Amino acid sequence: MISIVLPIYNEEAGLASFVSELSLELTKISENAEVIFVNDGSKDNSLTLIKGLCEENKDFKYIDLSRNFGHQIAVSAGIDYAKGDKIMLIDSDGQDPPAVMHQMLAKMEEGYDVVYAQRIKRADESALKKLTAKFFYKLLNKITNIEIPVDTGDFRIINRKVANALKQMPEKQRYLRGQIAWLGFKQTAVSYERLGRNAGETGYTYRKMIRLALDAITSFSNWPLRLATLSGFFCAFIGFFLILYTLYARFILKQYEPGWPSLMITIIFLGGIQLLGIGMIGEYISRINDNVKNRPLYLVGETNIESDASN
Question: Between 3.40.190.10, 1.10.10.10, 3.90.550.10, 3.30.300.30, what CATH number should domain 2-203 receive?
Answer without folding.
Answer: 3.90.550.10
